[in-house]
Amino acid sequence: MTAGGIEIVHGANVREISALVNRHTQSNWLGASSPLYRLESGGKVMVSLESEPLAGGQIALRFSVRNTGSVQAGVKVSFPVLRGLKPDKGSGELAYCFPKSGSIIGSDPIDIRRHYGGLFPLQFLDVYRRGAGGIYLICRDRANNRKTFHLRKARDGSADMSVEYPKRILSAGESWTLPPAVLGAHAGDWHAALQAYRRWVDTWYRPAAPRKKWFREAFNLRQVFLHPNLGLKYGAFDPKTEKFSLARMVKDDVSAFGGVDFVHIFDWSHTFAHGRVGQYRPWNDLGGAPAFRKEISKIQAIGIPVGAYLEGYLVSKNADVAAAKGALWQMLGADRKPHRRFGAGYCYMCPQVSVWRDYLAAACKGVVDSAGVDGVYLDQFGFGYQYPCHRADHGHSSPANQLQSEASLIARVRKSVGPNKVIYVEETPTDVTTQLLDGSFSYALSNDKAIVNLTRFAIPDFKVFHIIRCDQPLGNDLDAVCRIFFNGDGIWLEGPLSIAKWFPPKVRKLIAKTHRLLRTHRDAFCSTDVTPLVPTRNKSLLANRFATGEKVVWTLYNRSDKPLSGEFLAIARTGESRYHDAWNDKPLKARSFGGEDIIRIEMPAGGYGCVVQYRMPRRLRRD
After folding, report:
1. Phi-psi region of 145 (alpha: psi -120 to 50; beta: other; left: phi over 0)
2. Structural domain of residue 584, as residue ranges?
3. How many domains does the chain have?
4. Quick one: 478 and 587 in the same domain?
5. I need a labelling partner for 552 at 20 to 30 A (CA). Which of 329, 427, 601, 609 fits?
6. Does residue 221 sit in the same domain as residue 167?
7. Residue 213: φ, ψ to 5°
8. Which pTM value belongs to this model?
9. Is 515 helix (H, G, I), strand (E, B) or coil?
10. CA angle 270-276-279, nearest 5°?
11. What tens digit of pLDDT does each residue of 269-300 get?
12. pLDDT (tens digit, 9 = 90+) per residue, 516-544?
């Protein structure tokens, strides 16, 4: 089977391929035969495997299996499978791109699996080598099927890629058709695979509600507490006087961080009688809904939208709904016992229960109507793996598909609160589910080895606020703040200003600086014309590109332990331009050579930077 860019040569058995040729570089990526799938079955089954060339120079593979026996059969499938990938030409190490949350791009030996979901939101893998180009795999799943992406690079320099599906029980005569898989080839590196993936996403990706400009332009998100938390004896609400100090505290935050673009109220629903979450009618404990709404409006009056926290799964056992319906609606694990991840004080509700979906959607609408908030947050949603439900009386498979369960509940909330309110969750979910949301928090950069989050560039209008440390002081982690800026994303700010270890002066100053740069150039950072890790003239200099209209912004990172000094950034000339070192707030001179503007970069070891190109409007050019 041959397409424009890739050729598959089948062996004697259709399930195997003996050659995989990158037509761009005329390199064969298989030294020995590789299976295209792996099947484990406890019964009699029949397999169908089809291939089809696509217009884009790719090959689509389609796989289905049918139980031809007279009894149930357990079936487990890996599809597609590519083993022993190692080109017969090129130089240097075989490298790979594994776009998990906090993407891994490298060449060291590795053996890694991640479930599709918050830990692996995108659906592609890529391996490549200088001079031989690369081979990529895209899973074209638009239904949130459970699966695991696997990449292995062995010490002999070869690589394996596969997508693994969990075991499924097929009744007699039942068929199982897997999502299509696409194989493609390119002449460069992993960027080509990302571009191919984005082209496919563009064919179907449609947000359920318009993305809000004000939310996309938010970069400093401040989490606040009405009640004592994180070592403080007092919150922003005094239960004795029934007075709020929330608006005043937010003004202090604006001064400390150089601005606050969104306020996230964590504990508005907490009451002594009904617990932390689940009741969602705390007005008697907050001096009445009008008083709370008035305090919210004070924050909104200074141009800061407000969001309210709700739990996607947990209900405090003191809540009325837990007493009435908890035993029926809660999830059970494989041991048929309730989940206990956060202790026995909660019921862990199943999103597949339609009446629970209605209840939580109504709670979201209730806080929107009563408090006038601008958005609602569903905690613990987005990961998609932590709460398998094995109950037989909830009308779902065992275990339930948590990806589909969360998407169903989010869709119900969207219908309830309408298109003008933002909905956000704890972790960036699957590419498919992000259509239902406006944004999320994320732990993608909480690992100090994670430099770039490819999901931010693959789905650029989906807003992300990074959590570096949850419920712990940020301290002087200047590098984490800079890595968030490097990705052009937002930061989640939690902790009291009055306790110095949460936000020491150096980190406050840096947060204010990055916020000013992000807001000043928000037209570029909120553009959809974004490219991660663009080429530079020094391997230690990493650069992300954000472009819009007549402005281009490059965020820079010197990943070496030595200072950088040299003409390391080359920009294609498109006419007259003016350059500015935004990080150090000084003009830059460019040297024109060979159709490029060459920029001299001066950066300390481990340092960060920002260069802005102002492209002169055509009417002002001297030509």
Report:
1. beta
2. 534-620
3. 3
4. no
5. 427
6. no
7. -60, -45
8. 0.96
9. helix
10. 75
11. 999 999 999 999 999 999 999 999 999 999 99
12. 999 999 999 999 999 999 999 999 999 99
